[in-house]
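Supplementary notes for students who missed Thursday's class. We covered one full example, reproduced here. Read the sequence, then the structure, then the short commentary at the end.
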Amino acid sequence: MIKLHNTLSNQMEEFIPLNDKNVTMYVCGPTVYDYPHLGHARCYITWDILYRYLKFAGYNVKYCRNVTDVDDKILAKAHHEGVSASEISSRYYEIFSDAMKKLNNLQPDFEPRATKTIGEMIALIKILISKGYAYEIDGDVYFRVKNFKEYGKLSKQPIDDLEAGARVETSSKKEDALDFALWKKDEVDGYKSPWGIGRPGWHIECSAMSKKYLGEQIDIHAGGADLIFPHHENEIAQSECASGKQFVKYWLHNGFVTINKEKMSKSLKNFVTINSLLEHYDADTIRFFILTNHYRMPVEFNNEALNSAKTGFKRLQTTLDEVISFAEKDNLIPNQNSEEIEKFKKAMNNDLNTSVALSVLFDLSTKANSAKANNDKILAGRYVSELKMLMDVLGFTCKKSQISEEELNKRISTIIDELNFIDDRNTRGYALLDAVIAVRANARKEKNWELADKIRTIFDKIGIIFKDGKDKTIWLEKE
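Structure (token representation):
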């Protein structure tokens, strides 16, 4: 039984989908005007794991993550650079998409763009106007917040204490300061509508896209905690007023990534981009770092924590590399009902308790290595295959090294022995060295600096120096 913390009730609730084993899941995607940062990595890795785990648990999941490609910030950047808004959004969407692939996040089933759903947004706004929940003034359309008596139920804020929504300034044209924009007049960068040339407000975009791809009622809506108000609060208001039905059954929110106890954000200019982070740490290290903390809690970013994550993941990866080759293919059969698998499920069923789930992985690693030490191929195979299966569920790439460290040492020893008997470094010697360089180049590509340095050190001792250039590595003999 899966239990999730529902922001709406502020309680842990048993997860019971609206339609048996079929799950609809919507996650607020990026506004594509800048580089994605570690805060985005935490958000989308978190919901990638939920997506993976629900499928592992036997659910059929439809996952939709939108792309906001029409927005004030996109237009501001486009005007600043003297290019079109579509050029800005396309540029940063490609960067975002590439970052998600590098982080090993699964592609959502649907990834709609706001600009391709304008018709659905207009249709939804027309429904709200017809029901008296929205009104048009001089080409702008606003939602009447006080007409929705449950407004504030997600953020737990009394309606009288609330201020006008984010991203737009309070307009004197509004009937009430709380009312938020559904459609904004924009004769320069806008689209045709019944109210003149304009563009959608931020909040209506997600309501329209989730309805189009998942239906009027969905099981899960997730995103960062910063979206609870006003974005998700406004989504509830406009969606439920239009349909007359409960919009979302389970609202889930991940905590912030902080630097020096402050939320990481573009506005504070204290963010670390995903691409710059990947220059120093691989995707598995970043994912491990994020999973060591519960998704609802803030996580403090620092190099010490990432280095610790790197060490932790390396231990798991080393077990995979060494025990899989020891156990042999025929012995790699996981016990789907083992004690360890049940512990993993129990942890994940408890509101995605990934830190406990990681401890199960380390237990399996210890048992796999112990079985290997006892020369028990069958038991080693079972434990390591269970480890691999659960690492897949958590989204680790589990890229197997070209060869294990043990095998590498054997090969290096053999090559050195042969080179010692080849005084003139003939064709056979050159081929051997080229093979070593290729192994080392792959280690550098995978950012396995420890292995690359080890190879360099070993060959330095026998008088062969590796020199790394921009495009290739050459070897020289010491004089």
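Commentary. The chain has three domains: 3-263, 280-393, 405-477. Residues 303-327 form the longest helix (25 residues). If anything here is unclear, bring it to office hours.
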